[in-house]
Amino acid sequence: MSEPSPRETEADWLATKHTEPNVVVAKLVAFAAGLRFDDVDTPALVWPDPDEVPYVHEALPAAGTAWDSGITLQELPDAWRDALAQVVEDAVPMLALRWWDIAELDFADYRHAEESVRDFVGLARRARTAGEHLYCRTIA
User: Fold this and answer.
1) Does the chain have fewer CB atoms within 10 Å around its N or its C terminus?
2) Does residue 47 contact residue 66 with C-beta atoms inside 8 Å?
3) pLDDT of residue 72
4) Is residue 49, in this structure, part of any structural domain at all?
5) Where do runs of H (alpha helix) occur along 70-109?
6) 34-88: pLDDT as tens digits
């Protein structure tokens, strides 16, 4: 039996590609908050549980562990949610332009970057209004 999709569980979500949270989303947050990239908090790993299945960065993950799936789930800092939720409409074009220019992400064009920023801002606003956190599921 396959896992239900976020839509089937009525979760609010975005489907994106190549939007790695530790760098790509962190840079969007840094731009939105007016911070240096190095000053942005980092997401917390939720799954695989780092206490149950430690990940040794110097070695390949042990065969037969949860790391084999290539799936991780991270909780994004509430400060990220709040920074994105506070982006005003007039700031979206410049924010999108800055994000479009990062080396780690290849948007089809500027409009794609702008649409993605609006999607992230909207998701962050809905999460903040509902008192919810943001999560990022990454599939390697």
Assistant:
1) N
2) yes
3) 87
4) yes
5) 78-85, 92-100
6) 999 999 999 999 988 888 877 666 556 566 777 778 888 999 999 999 999 999 9
